Amino acid sequence: MTGSDGTFRLRRASAEEFAGVQHAEPVDSATLRAAGEIVERVRTEGSAAVREYAERFGERAPGEVLVLGRDAMHAALDDVTAEERGLLERAAGRIKAFARAQREAVREVDVAIPGGRAGHTVECVEAAGCYAPAGRHPLPSSVLMTAVTARVAGCARVVVASPGAHPTMLAAAAIADADEFLAVGGAHAIAAMAFGIESLPAVDVVVGPGNRWVTAAKRVVSGAVGIDMLAGPSEVLVIADESADAALVAADLLAQAEHDPDARVVLVSTCEALVLAVEEEVGRQGPALATWETASASLRAALCCVVGSIEEACVVADRVGTEHLQIVTRDADEVAQRIRHAGAVFVGAGAGVVLGDFGAGPNHTLPTGGTARYSAGLSVMHFLRMRTWLRMDDLAAAEPIVRDAMALAALEGLPAHGAAAAARMTAARRTAS
Asked: Radius of gyration of the chain from Cα atoms?
């Protein structure tokens, strides 16, 4: 927004305005209905429907293949410049290292119980579908964030889907060790991965960011396959005190605002003077950006909240439950420990959201719209299942468990359950005699 003197101003909001904040749905009902129709056509008509949409939206020309294999991906990798290849490989290496550390942190469980043992094994899904947008520009970082993570998790088959077949996206898919590249996007790509088409068997899990059509389709197919999340527009909330560098804070706000006119930007500060300096910096830095039209549209809805203490700032941040939380304060580590709800936390002025977005290691596919209150960003966990097991070696020793099972079966009116439990007692006595 613009002040009476023509300078840039963020709209002020009180801390109370964030109490009981109602987050917008990630996708509107009209898009959900329309995406549902596309998904159903792909489910019933298969490749013919996908090809029709791909040609209509200019993703593939008549006769071009829809699904590319490893040869095409590696040919694209061979054609990119050495600098671009090195960039993609370095980012992939950091993403892989972080994902591997996550995978190694997941342990199998084996505990003693009366008469036997119980536990869980960690099983990976067989096939992952990884969506990566490619609108105005290719987004190879999304290919790496999704496909590398799926491969590290242990998926035997990894599919990348992205509109068209941009050489950089194909090269990134090769580096990520993808098996197939579906050269279409939108709702029809999600449906094709979920239900399978000719030359592309169905996957088990569909992950990755996308526009409202992708998000709507993920919601529609979520009963048939697993999904990571229903992500809305990008979000950032910056907590800053008087020690913050106004130019740096402004740059971080602009970086998120340029994603989308609907991107959500919030600044929470204990210092009015810092806010004024940030506004001045936004007004100075923004118009020089090629993306200023998009960023300025987002910033018209941006909010600023001046609070009396860091404690109050943390309360506001938890109420919002933002996708990206940037902490630019003294004792940023201590402040970060107070936050309960955020998709990803960026601690200190050096840890810019942009570094996480572009391959420092942690995943950039994150929960939006307040869903960080109950969900987390994409990780190897989205491809893993904890499969429990039970073994009874000594039924006599297991008698307390058997008797409790019989009692609960009676309480819940399930006599066959009770009889099945009692049969264990009979078998144990027979074995003992």
From this structure: 26
Residues in contact with 90: Cβ distance below 8 Å, sequence separation at least 6, in sequence order: 359
Cα dist. 366→229, 292, 344, 424 in Å? 8, 24, 7, 48
- The domains of the chain are located at 29-228, 232-377, 394-432
Beta-carbon-side half-sphere exposure of residue 280 (alpha carbons within 13 Å) = 9
Q: Sort strands 127-131 and 384-392 into parallel, antiparallel or unpaired.
A: unpaired
Q: Which of 337, 420, 321 is nearest to 373 (CA)?
A: 321
Q: At what angle do helices 167-175 and 70-79 cross, to 10 degrees?
A: 110
Q: Report whether 146 contacts 208 (CB < 8 A).
A: yes
For residue 8, the 8-state DSSP code is B
- Check if the beta carbon of residue 175 is closer than 8 Å to that of residue 92: yes
Homologous superfamily assigned to 232-377 = Nitrogenase molybdenum iron protein domain (3.40.50.1980)
Angle, CA 164 vertex, CA 159 and CA 165 arms, to 5°: 65
Burial-class residue 298 by CB neighbours within 10 Å (0-12, 13-18, 19+): buried
Beta carbons of 257 and 265 less than 8 angstroms apart: yes
Are the beta carbons of 344 and 325 closer than 8 angstroms? yes
Find the helix or strand (DSSP H, E) in which 93 lies.
Answer: helix 82-105
pTM of the model as a whole? 0.93
Residues with a catalytic annotation lie at 323-324
b (16+ CB within 10 A) / e for 225-250: bbbbbbbbbbbbbbbbbeebebebbb
How is residue 191 written in tokens? 């449906």
* Contact partners, residue 71, CB within 8 Å, separation at least 6: none
Fold of the 29-228 domain: Rossmann fold (3.40.50)
Other beta carbons within 10 angstroms of residue 213's beta carbon come to 20
- Per-residue pLDDT of 179-238, as tens digits, reads 999 999 999 999 999 999 999 999 999 999 999 999 999 999 998 999 999 999 999 999
Query: What are 335-370's pLDDT values in tens digits?
Result: 999 999 999 999 999 999 999 999 899 999 999 999
